[in-house]
Specification:
Number of helices of chain B: 0
Shape of chain A: globular
Number of strands of chain B: 11
Number of strands of chain A: 11
Largest interface: A-B, 26 and 23 residues
Largest sheet of chain A: 7 strands, mixed
Low-confidence stretches of chain B: none
Oligomer: heterodimer
Mean pLDDT of chain A: 92
Helix content of chain B: under 10%
Shape of chain B: globular
Radius of gyration of chain A: 13 Å
Low-confidence stretches of chain A: none
Mean pLDDT of chain B: 90
Order of helices and strands of chain A: EEEEEEEEEEE
Structural class of chain A: mainly beta
Order of helices and strands of chain B: EEEEEEEEEEE
Distance between the termini of chain A: 37 Å
Radius of gyration of chain B: 13 Å
Strand content of chain B: over 45%
């Protein structure tokens, strides 16, 4: 069964540095999402992306964050000038159509030191 | 905020027993979904119920939806140790923004 894959599985970065989290969505899916889960807390929506542009974003997704689909397969989340509170699991998801089940990757654990 | 809230936060049962988890939300929805998350893994979709549906079954899972009370329940029958995981409900009012609840941590004791 097709899967959403995320790399790296664990990223350790110094505070203030930039990080890029990578995702390969399921190949025939058109809608892409990023979520964040701080340890022990709920999964929080960050952004949805369709047709090469952001369709919705949450309050968390401020100017520090950006997303990009640089080619036909990858979907990236860039976090500029990372802060300690950015430490979390970041999940990528994709779906074929909106409002339908989303398929999640196993996440990238981001640790900011 | 539309975010759902599950209860209980934690549930521990013996293998073979049924497990019931509840979810409440705040605004009108298009559909409600239940997801499962094993420790350290991503979320896995279990079942979707539309706002005009009241009950849905999938294998050992039974989901109900009461839009008048803005609540849903997930029943897992004949639980197995492998069902040990966190379970989340997710709602959407429109578009592509999903709101996840705080989750119920289920432990099934062999």
């Amino acid at each position: 069964e097709p899967e959403v894959t995320q790399t790296p599985s664990h990223q350790v970065t110094q505070m203030g540095q930039e990080v890029i989290l990578r995702c390969v969505p399921i190949s025939n899916h058109l809608y892409f999402y990023w979520y964040r889960q701080i340890l022990g807390q709920k999964v929080e929506f960050l952004v949805s992306f369709y047709n090469n542009e952001i369709s919705e974003k949450s309050e968390i997704f401020d100017d520090q964050f950006s997303v990009e689909r640089p080619d036909g397969s990858n979907f990236t989340l860039k976090i500029r000038s990372t802060k300690l509170e950015d430490s979390a699991m970041y999940f990528c998801a994709s779906s074929a159509v909106p409002n339908q089940p989303q398929h999640f990757g196993d996440g990238t654990r981001l640790s900011i030191l | 905020s539309q975010q759902g809230e599950e209860d209980p936060q934690a549930l521990s049962i013996q293998e073979g027993e049924n497990a019931t988890m509840n979810c409440s939300y705040k605004t009108s929805i298009n559909n409600l979904q239940w997801y499962r998350q094993n420790s350290g893994r991503g979320l896995v979709h279990l079942i979707l119920i539309r706002s005009n549906e009241r009950e849905k079954h999938s294998g050992r899972l039974r989901v109900t939806l009461d839009t008048s009370k803005k609540s849903s329940s997930l029943l897992i029958t004949a639980s197995r140790a492998a069902d040990t995981a966190s379970y989340f409900c997710a709602t959407d009012a429109n578009g592509n923004q999903f709101y996840f609840g705080t989750g119920t941590s289920l432990t099934v004791i062999p």
